Each structure stands twice: as C-alpha cells, then as structure tokens.
Amino acid sequence: MTEATGIVGEFFSxxxxxxxxxxxxxxxxxYEFFGEDAELVSDELDLKVSQKSSHGxxxxxxxxxxxxLTPYLKALVERGYRVAVADQYETDSGHAREIVRxxxxxxxxxxxxxxxxxxxxxxxxxSTAGRDGYGLAFADVTxxxxxxxxxxxxxxxxxxxxxxxxVEVLPGPEARGDDDLLGQVRERIDAALTLHETERFAPKRxxxxxxxxxxxxxxxxLSVGDPAIAAAGAILDYVEETGTGVLxxxxxxxxxxxxxxxxxxxxxxxxxxxxxxxxxxxxxxxFATIDHTETSAGGRLLKEWLQRPRRSLEALERRQESVxxxxxxxxxxxxxxxxxDEAYDLARLASKATHGSADARDLLALQNxxxxxxxxxxxxxxxxxxxxxxxxxxxxxxxxxxxxxxxxTLEEAIxxxxxxxxxxxxxxxxxxxxxxxxxxxxxxxVKRWLDSLxxxxxxxxxxxxxxxxxxxxxxxxxxxxxxxxxxxPDHYEEIKTLKNSKRFTxxxxxxxxxxxxxxxxxxxxxxxxxxxxxxxxxxxxxELLQDVGRTLATxxxxxxxxxxxxxxxxxxxxxxxxxxxxxxxxxxPVVEQTTEFVPNDVRMDExxxxxxxxxxxxxxxxxxxxxxxxxxxxxQVGSFVPAKEAEIGLVDGIFTRVGxxxxxxxxxxxxxxxxxxxSNILHTATDESLVILDEVGRGTATxxxxxxxxxxxxxxxxxxxxxxLFATHYHELTxxxxxxxxxxxxxVAADERDGDVTFxxxxxxxxxxxxxxxxxxxxxxxxxxxxxxxRDVLERLREEKAIEAKGGSSNEPVQTVFDxxxxxxxxxxxxDGGEPAEEENGETVDADAKAVLDDLxxxxxxxxxxxxxxxxxxxxxxxxxxxx
Length: 884
Ligand SMILES: Nc1ncnc2c1ncn2[C@@H]1O[C@H](COP(=O)(O)OP(=O)(O)OP(=O)(O)O)[C@@H](O)[C@H]1O
Prior knowledge:
Shape: elongated
Bound molecules: adenosine-5'-triphosphate
Mean pLDDT: 86
CATH topology of the largest domain: Rossmann fold
C-alpha cells in the first residue's frame, strides 16, 4: 500500500499507536473509519463504505455523525471489539487528533443493560515463592463498585469468576498461560479476554496504585495477599489507560471473603438454575421467579445475594427480621415500592457525573431519586413493625443531611424540564445565579420584544397578516401576506418573496437579532459553565450517592423477598448452626409456580445425614433434591422458604452433580465431566456442606457406575460426612442403609395398577426396587416390540435367569448378577471354557476372576482416595474383561 498522507495517513499512524481492534477518528462533524476498519464496520454494522483517495491511492472509508457514535460503539464492543476513539482538537496551524479512550466490554459506560458489568482481573500467585493462591479483582465502571477476592486454586478462581459473571477478564502474567482456565472463561463465562501489559500486575506498582486510589491504609485493611492487590492494581491501571474517566467514582474497595459466603461452585450455580436455566433462559431461573424489585439496582443486589449466600447467622437473622416485618406490613410495603418506582440508578448516575457525561436530565433524575430516601424513611418510621426492624438502621446508613442538601442544591439549580443538550441553555432555574439571571432577563426582554413585534407592526402600520419568525437562512424576519405587502412602510427591506407572502427585515430587527444571538450564546456558555460546576459537585459526592443507592437497593431487595413470601405462602425458616435440616411440606420454589405441586417432607440430622433417593424415572427425584438445595440456599440469603415449616442448619457450601447438558460441545465426554465434578465434590465438601448427587455413575458401564457410586457413598459417609442426597437407579445402593449408620433410604412413590403407573410425587421412607423405566419408554413412544422385549428381559434378570441374545449367532445365554450382601459382582457363568472354576463362598469363580477378587478385597475403600479408587476399579474390570 502506498504511504497515505493527510487524514488517511493520520488515521493509520494513530492505528499503529493502539492495540485496539478498531479505530475511529473524528473529522469535523463525523467519526470516520478507514481501510480495513471501514470494511469491518461495514460488515458488522451495515455502514456504507465509500472511497477516499490519498496520494494516488484509494482507501475504503465509512463514517457516522458525531452525535450518533454511541450506539455504533456499543454495538462494536458488544460484538467483542476493542474500539479506540480519537478526538479532534484545534492547534495553531489547524487540527490534530489523538486517541482519548479505548472502549472495551468492561469499560463501556454507555450500557443500557440493568445487569452489573464487571471488569475482572485474575492473578495466579500459586507459582510464586509465597504460594499465595489466586487473587481476583472486580470493578463495575458503570457503578463504581470495586471488590477483591482470593481463591485457593484455579477451580476456586473460576467459581468466583462465574459468580461475578464479568464481561471482560484481564489474566495476569501466569494466568494467561493457563489454557484450561482461559478456555473456561471464554466458553462458560463468555467474557472477552484482554492481555494487559504484564508489568501492570507487578505487586509493588499495583499496591501503589491501590493506595493512591483508595487511601494509604487500604492494602493493610483489606488483608488480602499480593495476587489480589496485583489484580486490583492492574484494573485501576487499565481503567485509567482506556481513558474511561471514571476512576473518581471508584471510591471504595471491599474484600469479598469466601469464608463469609456459602461455597457455590460454577457447576452448582448452573445446576440450580440460579440466574438462568440450563437452556440459557433468564425466565424460569430462581432469580427471575423471586425478583419483584422495582429498580435495576435492587435487581442487581438481589441477584448478588442469590449468588453469594451468607454464612453468618446474625447477618441472616437481621435480613429475616426485615423480610418478616415487610411481609406482614402490606400497606407500608406498597408505599415503599411506589416510592422506589420513582428511583433511578444512583450509582450509574454518579459514575456518569464523574465521567462528565451526565446531562441535565440525569441530574434531575438524581435529584428526584435523592427525594425517595426521605419518603422511605417516613414510611418506615410510620409503621411500628418496620420502625422496630433493622430497616431503620438501613435507611439511616447514608448521611441523610448531606443527601438532602445536595438534593436542595439540584432543586434550586436544574430547570423543571431541561433539554438533553448541555450547551444551548435552559438547563437551569431562574434565581440560581445572579449573573445568569441578568442574562436571562435581557434574553427574555428581547424575546418579549420579538414576540410582540407582529402586533405592534399591525397596529402601527395598519397591516394585516403579519407574523414574526426565524429560520436558518433568513434569520429573523417580518412576514406579511401578499395582499398587505404593498402597504409596508418604507424602512421595511424585502428579503424574500414567497407564493402568498413577502419577508422583510428592518434595521431595528437586525439589531435585536444580533442581540438575541449574542445573548443566546452568552446564556448557553454561562449555563454550561454553571452546569459543569454543578456536575463536578455531584461527582465529588459520588460516595454519598453510592451510599444512598445501596440503601435504596437494599430496601428494594428486601421488599422483593417479602412480596414473594407473602404472595406464595412462604415461611420464615428457623436457622441454627446444628447439623439438622427439617422441612415440613417443602416445595420447589420455581416448579411450584407452574405445577400443582405435591409438597414433601425432609428430615436429616446427625443420625440420618445421607439419603439415598430412589424411585421410578420421572417420579420427581431430581425435583425433590433440588428443592432441598434451593430452600437451603434461599434460607442463607435471608429469604423465607416454600414450606409449611422449616428448620435449617446453616451450611458452608452447596455442591451438586446432575446430568450435564452442554459439555459435549467443549470436547469433554459426559462421563469425564461427571467424574471431574464428583472429584471436585469429594475434595472440597466438608461435614458442614450439602451435597446433591443425581445419578452418579450413569455415564459409564453399569458395573463401573455402581462401583463408583458405591465407593463415593462410602467416602462421603465415612470421610467427608457432608449432608448428602443421592438419587440413583442402582437399587443395589439401597442396601447400604443397613450397613452404614447415617445412610437412610427414601423413595418417591408410584402406584401401579393393572400395568398402569401413576406418579404420586410423594416421598416416603424406605427403598423402592422399581424403576418403571420401561413404562417411561412406552410413554415416550418406543416401538412395542422393543418395549415388550424389554419387559421380558427385565423379568428374566429379576429371576436371575439367563437371557439369550435374539438373532445372535450363538445361543449362549448371558447372565450377570450383582450381589448386594457381598457388594460384588457375580461375573458371567463359566460359559466360554476358560480356567477351571473354583468354589468361593459357595459361588463358582474361575481362577483369573478369583485373583481379581482377591485384589479387590485387599483394596481399602476408606483410605484410598476416591479417584485412585475409580482407576483401580477400572483396572480390575479391564483384567476381568481380558480374562473373558
Ligand atoms: N412434588 C412434585 N409435585 C408436582 N410435580 C412434580 C413434583 N416433583 C416432580 N414433579 C414433576 O415431575 C417431573 C419429573 O420430575 P424429575 O425430573 O424430578 O424426576 P426424576 O425422578 O428425577 O426423573 P429421572 O429419574 O428420569 O431423571 C417434572 O416435570 C416435575 O416438574
């Protein structure tokens, strides 16, 4: 390509300066894209491309008017591009341009999405000498929220990332080499990955940046390790470098300590469908079901509560107290919600003010929202139950006097219905500023003179059909109807003839025109100056606004919990730190919305900590177990729960393993995913955790499956001692209840009469031995011959009779039986003439199989780590297969 000069040359040299994917450069009233960037935006956004010639070559060019840039920027960033914006400025010799900001998914201020928009950094400190684990930082530039967190390992780090669901992630120096972590971030979290310069993560430099931003004491106060500080420092640097201009709205940094919160790994958050369903829909998620918030900030907070349930009994009881008071005070709740309905997103408005993009309408919104706070305070004070609850403390948390005074300032300043442009005046109230009042007086006087000019001319010169108006080409003019145009006085100067009228001007009118234009400009400039001061005053109050915003959001979220509880007959659960979980007539919070739900009881305690849940296919096992998990989670959010009565021992983590739907796309086999999830649970769960296992072992051969399920049950029961619900179709496992003291059987009942199966959805104590899988196959339309033959095979299996393979070349029958009492398999009968059979415990076993059994016997399931156990069992099975 020939060396371009002029504008195109300037564009290309700016493009070289930036690592952004796309550059847009201001040229007068347009932002232009050139070369490949023009083609890219034309493909992505349907912008028209023309050709610009420079130095004998021609370059593709596309442009948008200055005022229309925002939606294009947003669209490009949402498609994953980083866009550099170069603005034009005046120089002595003409114009020059420089890049003023780089817009990325995590620094996009122009979002219209109500969700939080986190920019995250993740630093792997596990390879450094101190072995500090992982450090993470999260910042939402649209609200100024800033958090740091720590994680023990990559899986934990991923859990935190999943919890905050960032739109952009900056991996630190080591983390950027971790393909597995980055792959998961890209696919599961769908975040853009940005490689910010590695030296920006250097611990000393980062600590300095954190102190500069949040104060000298910050690093000590947070008491987090170097990696978390490095992550925070890198984010601050990145936000500054991208030129977002919102650093001032980041007033506070908080440490998010995993210990205060219930561990909810990424898998569990998905399995419980907290914020979206397995299919990826928002509707049908737990959050969408219980969300009755009035404001987007309230919605964001409620979602955060669900994703980060608490472990502190005191904190939860306080939330419960507020929810209880609000749920019984229906009228006061309505009043609060009506007031909240008027509230805008204060944190976002504060961030816009800091960035300098808030207009007068934004400040008006801010003023009105500040007015909501005293309304809430009054409604709370006027209801004795609410006044007595922690709500009083919540509403008093922000500095109410400062908020009232800022509101008063805004009320005195901002006009009642200001325009959205900030340069053309009419933003401010009369009486706000003396100098401005003077300009307004003079402006209004000239306006009045102009408004009354037509009448004056009519009466003075006896003219009819006279109007006075202005337009761009003619300026101010007197327009006189054709019939009267000949009678105008001599000092009228004609400027235009139209079909039915003529336009005139006069010296006096021209003088007034000059005056009004000057006054308009003066007023616009002065108002802009005053408005800018006001905006800076608002920006200086960012922390106060965030405090008020947080209070409004908290009351909104609490009122939402109360509304849902009141409308759905939820009850306040008794919370305690003991190992006991009792639900009387519990229901699934989401399923009960769409189904005539059959409530079920749950009883778990020290002597009954592991429930094996059996029951036919489709009977409701998964629903029952998820219901337990959702209820415990809701209780640890401080919410009421769907039950007649509930008593809940707080847990430190909720772990689930249920059927995986979407993992195949990621190139991991279903079984591999199942095993790594199981492995994670066996390693991480504690005796205070709740574990939900749905059909572990299903993804492999039956024998492997049963063996793994069996061994995992023993390990969870003996070693981990977590409260566990385990649904299985391996009825063999029900035998464990007789052998392991804390294991109990429950089953979901079904009624079978004359071959018809009715699902009762009722959970009862004891095991079941029927799956009715064939019944479900029949319901699903599997062809009759297959269904009939299945019944036949099942019958023979039950009677431990041999089955021949229909249509096979050999008539050799096959027989496999699992012996519950020994916990072992009886392999195929000695049908193929292998080693001579031996007698063992009265059973017939060949020599190779005997050797395998001996090895199996010597395997200590209580001390062998579960995954090793799995691989040993697999090796034994391989040997069995080889002997066949
Ligand atoms: N208590 C209940 N009241 C009403 N409907 C229920 C109840 N429990 C489950 N259901 C409904 O029954 C259907 C099957 O439930 P679920 O998926 O829990 O069965 P399952 O036993 O886990 O099945 P499978 O063993 O085939 O995985 C779902 O559509 C669910 O909505």
